[in-house]
Write a structure and sequence with these properties.
- By secondary structure, the protein is an alpha/beta fold.
- It has 2 domains: 2-85 and 153-223 and 310-362, 3-Layer(bba) Sandwich (FAD/NAD(P)-binding domain), CATH 3.50.50.60; 92-146 and 224-307, D-Amino Acid Oxidase, Chain A, domain 2 (2-Layer Sandwich).
- It is built from 9 helices and 19 strands.
- The chain has helices spanning 11-22, 39-42, 58-81, 99-114, 124-130, 153-166, 210-215, 276-289, 335-350, and strands spanning 2-7, 27-30, 46-47, 92-96, 120-122, 141-145, 149-150, 170-172, 177-183, 186-192, 195-197, 199-204, 224-234, 243-246, 249-253, 258-262, 297-308, 315-318, 325-329.
- Strands 5-6-4-14-15-16-13-17 form an 8-stranded mixed sheet. The protein has a 6-stranded mixed sheet with strand order 8-2-1-12-19-18.
- Helix 1 (11-22) packs parallel to helix 9.
Length: 366
């Protein structure tokens, strides 16, 4: 019998499986589709700068831990699998257009400074010196965060899947969970499209679909799907070198000339279709900010479903009243970023250790 059955093979599930397998656990990951092809694949791979200290809220501690772990994981994954995850510390620019947006951005930059994160206010001329491809005419404020980084989602997921298999974990695609059987306050087995599956412990990491799965165990959570649409440009060379952030929208340049433009936030259920209006808005945003993209081809457009929560915090921990069932989901736009830290603290919990971050604020039923 497996030690842990992980339901959901996205970046959270695969990261957790890898850490558990490295600690000698027998791990089985099942996914209703192809592992790593939902929100984990669909995002842009932005890794914000963060720094943890003991006095911060546990969510900020989780962010700080994730930021510290990502370069370590990227190096270890490449060493173990030979796959470059695309981790780059490229830096990020944060821009504002209106006076209100500039004031909010300045307040945010002040908080970063208080946390000890390097952030610098730049003039329009200074931005032009480091990113001459940006059209700054309507921009009223700009801040530079040198430690902002990025990953290439498909590369990172491919490396995680290979690392899991090398460490002895089993990954099974196209296994739809249809029911969960609870006996004597323990999850006894899961009924799936491939037959019943049993393990000593179960962890639900199915992203936007986690709420549906947990409802079969009698739990109601605030996890809901939030659609995000994306546009991928491709030209010979990237017209910018840093991540460009403006509010909730962004441009992420890749070394090979590709530039991702995102993203929307739409509550439309489990509808992953793109819309002409949203793709048009994202395209206009990108072309107005970086005129050189007018010469680029639009290589691809797509949408993914992020797992939102009612208060913006993920659900992490044991399910109340069931001694061997856990959840790690609801990370919204931060799943890839928080995946490393989530894996560590949930692995510690599943292995009977005290997690290094207090998980009380993330409990189911909060």
């Amino acid at each position: 019998m497996d030690d842990v059955l992980i339901i959901g093979g996205g970046v959270i599930g695969l990261s957790l499986a890898w850490d558990l397998a490295k600690h000698g656990c027998r791990v089985h990951v099942v996914d209703q589709g192809e592992p790593g092809r939902e929100a984990s694949w669909a995002g842009a791979g932005i890794l914000p700068a963060a720094k943890a200290n003991a006095s911060q809220h546990p969510y900020e501690q989780l962010r700080g831990l994730a930021c510290r772990l990502h370069p370590q994981w990227a190096a270890e994954l490449k060493d173990r699998t030979g796959i470059d995850t695309g981790y780059r510390r490229c830096g990020g620019l944060h821009l504002a257009r209106t006076a209100g947006e500039a004031a909010a951005l300045a307040g945010w930059a002040g908080l970063l400074h208080e946390e000890g994160i390097e952030v610098e206010r730049l003039s329009t001329a200074e931005v032009g010196e480091i990113e001459p491809g940006l059209h700054m005419k309507a921009i009223t404020a700009a801040f530079h965060v040198p430690r902002e980084s990025q990953l290439r989602n498909p590369w990172h997921l491919g490396a995680l899947a290979k690392a899991c298999e090398l460490a002895g974990a089993t990954i099974t695609p196209r296994a739809l969970v249809t029911d969960a059987i609870v006996l004597h306050d323990q999850c006894d087995r899961l009924q799936t499209s491939l037959g019943p599956l049993q393990a000593k412990q179960y962890c639900f990491t199915a992203g936007a679909w986690t709420g549906q799965l947990l409802s079969r165990l009698g739990f109601s959570t605030g996890i809901l799907p939030v659609r995000g649409q994306m546009v991928l440009f491709h030209r010979e060379r990237p017209p910018v070198t840093r991540i460009i952030n403006e509010g909730s929208r962004y441009l992420v340049p890749r070394d090979d000339g590709r530039v991702l433009a995102g993203s929307t936030e739409e509550e439309v259920g489990f509808d992953k279709r793109t819309t002409e209006e949203a793709i048009g808005d994202l395209t206009d945003f990108a072309l107005n900010l970086v005129p050189a993209l007018r010469e680029a081809a639009i290589e691809l457009t797509w949408a993914g479903l992020r797992p939102g929560s009612f208060d913006g915090l993920p659900y992490l921990g044991r399910l109340p009243g069931i001694g061997n069932a856990y959840v790690a989901a609801g990370h919204f736009r931060s799943g890839l970023f928080l995946s490393t830290a989530t894996a560590i603290v949930m692995s510690q919990l599943l292995r009977g250790q005290r997690p290094e971050v207090d998980l009380a604020p993330f409990r189911v039923g909060r």
